[in-house]
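FYI - complex with copper (II) ion, inputs then prediction.
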Amino acid sequence: MPWIPGMKLRTLLLTAVVPLLSGCSTASFRLFHPAGVVSSIEWHYTLIDVGVMSLLIVPVTIMIAVFVWRYRKSRNARYDPTWSHSLGLELAMWGIPFLTVIFLGYESYRSTLLVNPYGPAALNYADAANPPLQVDVVTTDWQWVFIYPQYGIATVDDLVVPAGRPVKLWLTSTSVTNDFFIPGVAPMIDVMPGMRTMDGFQVNVPGSFEGFSADFSGAGFSWMQFSTRIVAKPDFDKWVAATQASSNQLSYAAFTKLAEPTVNVGAKPAYFSQVPSGLFMDVYNAARAGTVYAIPEQLKISTSSVDYTQGRDGTN
Amino acid sequence: MTLGTIGADEKVVLWQYGEVAHDMISTKTLGFWLYMLSDALVFAGLFAAYGVLDHSMNAANGPTEAQIVHPIAAFWQTLAVLTSVFAYSVATVAVKHGYRQLVVLCVLAAILLGMVFLGLEFSDFADLYAHGATPQVSGFLSAYFILIATHGLHMAFGILWLLVMAIQVSRLGLTAPVVAQLLNLRLFWQFQAAIWVCVYVFVYLKGVI
Amino acid sequence: MFVHLQGPYSFLFGRLTLASIPYDNAIIQFAFGFAAIAAILVVAPVLYYRKIPYLFREWLTTVDHKKIGVMYIILGLVMMFRGFFDGLMIRTQQVMADGPHSAGHLEAAHGYLPPAHFDQIYSSHGTIMIIFAATPILTGLGNIIVPLQIGARDMAFPTLNAISLWLTTVGAALVMASLFIGDFSTAGWVGLIPLTELDFSPSSGVDYWMWAIQISSVGTTLNAINVIATIVAMRAPGMRWTRLPIFTWTTLSTSIIGLTAFPILGVALALLGADRYLGTHFYTAGLGGNLMLYTNLFWIWGHPEVYFLVLPAFGIISEVIPAFSEKPLFGYVTMVAATFAIAGISWVVWLHHFFTMGAGPLVNSFFSVATMVVGIPTGVKVFNWLFTLYRGRLTFATPMLWAVGALFLLLIGGLTGMMLAIPAVNYTVHNSVFVIAHFHCMVLLIVYAAFAAVSFWWPKVFGFKLDETTGKLFFWSFSIGTILLFTAMFGLGFMGETRRLDYLYNTQWFPALVIEEIGVGFYSLSVLIFFAMLFVSIRDRVKNAASADPWGTSRTLEWLTHSPVPFYNFAVTPHVNSRDELSWRYLNNLAATAPEHFEEIHMPNNTPVPLIIGALAFGFGFGLTWRIWWMTGFSLLGIIAVVIYRSFARDKGYHLSAEVMTQLEREPPLGVIAESQYLSKHPLTGAGAH
Ligand code: HEA
Ligand code: HEA
Ligand code: CUA
Ligand SMILES: [Cu+2]
């Protein structure tokens, strides 16, 4: 993680807020336990924002409660029936939030640069010794296709990346808009047909995570998860070699079959070799030229014809 | 001060006797101005859409702006709209002097010129259709047709309104409500001309530059 | 239910076939049975007591701003009830469909709703709550209160006012029709693009959604014009701008937002309509369309829209808190300034709804900062209310409970809104139920303010107070529901639960989901209490009869005239001397001073024209949805013809002579704001009319 000025001090300042937010057992609060470089920064700024805002919100909340209690008619507290103006107070009530917003605005600007999906300042893409892994992401109705142009392989619903290496994503969709998200790992970014967006992340220790679409995309949306596996570098190389040996091949023609609307219950993965390097751009250009994958009637009326009983188990 | 006690020699008025004069004509005019504001925003939205889609990328291999606009032909449309507005202005002058016949005559002239405008627009569209340049071809053509057709629709409604007013003037005379409507119609008609000028500049002239 | 719009076509019925009516769906059967029983409960007494002529004469053709306002609010409450039912169904589905081993009922694999049905429910919930519940309730309140607060006899354009009402009602009726004929959109209340394109939504749903919103927003725009013109032109003498009550100020600012924002929504939807009906390519991904154009246009309206809703709510709070603190509002000038600051800034923040769409960091930062700037004037408002409470003499009648409750919601919603406004944070919680929880705090603030307003102004409109015991019970039950439901929902947001899920794959969420379900349980209870409250209050109406100022501590002009307000509002227009006119008259012992004599006044006639336009507008929307072109064309021509016909009619209204006014004012109020009750008691109609 890059050095962020004043991080220690603020972390100290915010220790008051963390327990408040996180309660006792926080294992299931995925966002409280960021694993990736970018996600950690996001969580850090979440704390700053909540901390600073609390400096105002908490006192105001308490004051409302106290005033409501103190000035009830039955308590006969001091009553000032005409007091309705005070220049000093009114200046303060504009001024203090103003200063707070200036501070938060600056923090917002800085953090936006750090986590900018199109080239997060927090990641180093330029290191020749550790070049970024390029993954092209294509969403269909309703699966995820991950293409590794550097290796000529692709997967469905299974994103495998090496630990400690920055990952650079290009994303596009064959049909409607989705939203790429891996909580605790990668920031969200929209995935749109006929458009190319980018994202980037890096996780330094191996682990498994859940990714999914966050933007509603039709009847199969609720089942649109994919697994994210961060593996050690040697394991990644092994995995790539194994996948390259797969007899399953993915030409553009094969892709158009894959892109037919399917609900992939339980995110059952598939692996492909011999993937043409230009597949992503082919998909992108096809969408721009008006290619649409029609949804079969049956799926639109009700997806009950699909067997949902074997969804993935609910652990992360 | 919010609250205050009355001074000893202060005279307070608690009730307003007599008719409280709310000038209904100027209130109606105000209301109509507000309506025109919302109409202006409709066109702002359409112009924004046109601005976004007026790009060779959005022409999707179909014709681009430069290939379909004819500033010279559209100039005649501009002329028609402006003279129609002029005719209507003469009508409002006639209203001031109470020349009922002249008002009707000028309104009819404004209608005629408005129809000329629509006719030219129609022939332009027909020409484009004949060349296969329909709104379904590309995002750009969609924006082009819808922007201009929306203005055309406004013109058509304006013509209908002019017609209604011509009848009202000749049947009811220049009564206050009729005059109020005539004034609102003037606003409407001038506004359509102004929009057309914007269309002419942003679509036709910009298209060839 | 699902009808492909490319399916069979007939001239008479367009795409409408018997197959469009989902009579075989158990849930729809239930809904239909429920609606039918409700309708019978309403219609039967009307028929039994032969009230149809009364309804027609007094309500359906009225141009009285108070009655129109009451009808707006009834429409809003009924739709809120429907929206609540949707919310209940959403929550029940989600708690039932958690984890792969959750059972399936009816036609669903998990829970009891198959995806397509579930998706319609949250889409209609959002659409209904925002456009057909919150908006009409607030518009209705503005309608009732604003002319009274500024001492006017009616709105500037009474007939137009009725037209606005009926257009909004038509929109609501279209949404309700979609329940039983065809289906509703599944693309969310925002109309996610390109999901709403014909390729992906080939049924009637999106068209219902689109035309319902489009028609009602014409009504909203016309109402905004009316309100602005009223406030500008119809103020009583002495009602200077610096004396305008805050609720009137906020209604003015809201109307300015409405007037300028709704046309943009109109364009956004019309272009979608062009895509769906004419095959153009505005928003398609291919052939030169641009789907981000829709998203931008929608939110250029959508964001101002939420402030359109919240500003009148702020206005209500600003009226209720001083009244029950027995103090003037703290910082009137800053309050007005803050109102307009919020309205102004609301125009440059729309992009915060799609920080994740990939704009550059500078653009995102700009909109982030602009969004947070809204917090400044909002904070000013909070502080102003705080210092109004300070050294006040607080009483906690029901309206005050709702108002103070709203403050807490605003603080939590504001805190979470400020989190969402930072892109780095937004990238982790966008489109999660954290967002849902954020904005439910905010929209519930509006609901709280609405209930505050209803209980506050109820005696003014109906002449008796609502029952306080059941009213407080209603508040507490509702609030427990709110706390349980939305605390759990914030937690789920941090657990990573995405919004709009009909099936939840993570079983660790179950405890929180159960808490949410208990929350809606309390909501359901509170609905029952609400009906009990209405029942008890109406039963005890004589006991609870209200004086002109039933709370005894009210401050503004509307409390000067009788309760219930007579159809002519003020017999003699008051002359305004102070910002809090009634308080000022109290202070100077003038509150009881009645006018010395009465004069002739002029009133507008009722007219069926607005109702007819409404009926035709329904035909227009329904015909378009089902491609029944003759119906569409007939309705459109009908509307034009009616408008032209009306422009020839010279309806001059009628006069009430000085003697009649004297007599009317001497009579004790009769209990309802019914014009004919006065008139039938005194056979004047002929006497005064032209
Ligand atoms: C004004 C706006 C508003 C209001 C008030 C509400 C109120 C409620 N909402 Fe709503 N909601 C939205 C606007 C609103 N919502 C929007 C815009 C969405 C997004 C949709 C989308 O994704 O596209 C949404 C989405 C949404 C979801 C998310 C679905 C998802 O994406 O996963 C959920 C889930 O729990 C929910 C629940 C509720 C509940 C339980 C209430 C409760 O608070 C309801 C409480 C109300 C009552 C208890 C009724 C009281 C009424 C009466 C007493 C009147 C009765 C009178 C007569 C009949 C005369 N809402
Ligand atoms: C009435 C409704 C309402 C209101 C008032 C607000 C108010 C605010 N909203 Fe909210 N919002 C919605 C309704 C509303 N919102 C809806 C419906 C959506 C989602 C729509 C959808 O996707 O379906 C949404 C979504 C939404 C998003 C996008 C979330 C996403 O999809 O990722 C964001 C992001 O910035 C946001 C921010 C804010 C902010 C900063 C405010 C601010 O105005 C809040 C200001 C208030 C305070 C800050 C508290 C009081 C202030 C003080 C006590 C002073 C101290 C404060 C400072 C130092 C500034 N809102
Ligand atoms: Cu949104 Cu491209
Ligand atoms: Cu917003």
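Residues A 56-57, 60, 97, 100-101; C 190, 306, 309-310, 352-353, 371, 374-376, 378-379, 382, 410-411, 414, 417-418, 420-421, 426, 430, 435, 438-439, 442-443, 446 surround heme-A (ligand 2) (CB under 6 Å). Residues 2-208 of chain B form a domain with the Four Helix Bundle (Hemerythrin (Met), subunit A) fold (CATH 1.20.120.80).
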